[in-house]
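REVIEWER CHECKLIST
Item 1: Sequence provided? yes
Item 2: Single chain? yes
Item 3: Sequence as submitted:
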Amino acid sequence: MSYLKFLNLIEAVKGLPTFPAMDAVEERLLNTFAVLWQVGVPVTVLQSMEMLQEASPATIHRRLKTLRHKGFIALELDAQDNRVKYVVPTALTHQYFAKLEDCLEKAQQ
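Item 4: Structure as written out by the authors:
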């Protein structure tokens, strides 16, 4: 039952005006990034375009643009090579995952 409660809480969070709506590919990308960011692995745009087998690199590139436009990610230039851009989380991303963590804690009560 905790899992179903968790799913219901997450759906409520997704409906909040605080967070722009994401499609399934955007959400999957953001979750994949979060796992890597958590352990300190930097992610380049080029690497991210090969992360999801269910989406083409072109689709992922478009979703990176929309995630950036929605405020969930930012791009930072590499200090040595301006051709390399890293995908980094924003304050909105941290808020989003903090809210999901709250949902997990509430579901376990």
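Item 5: Key structural point noted by reviewer: The domain at 2-108 is CATH 1.10.10.10 (Arc Repressor Mutant, subunit A).
Item 6: Recommendation: ____
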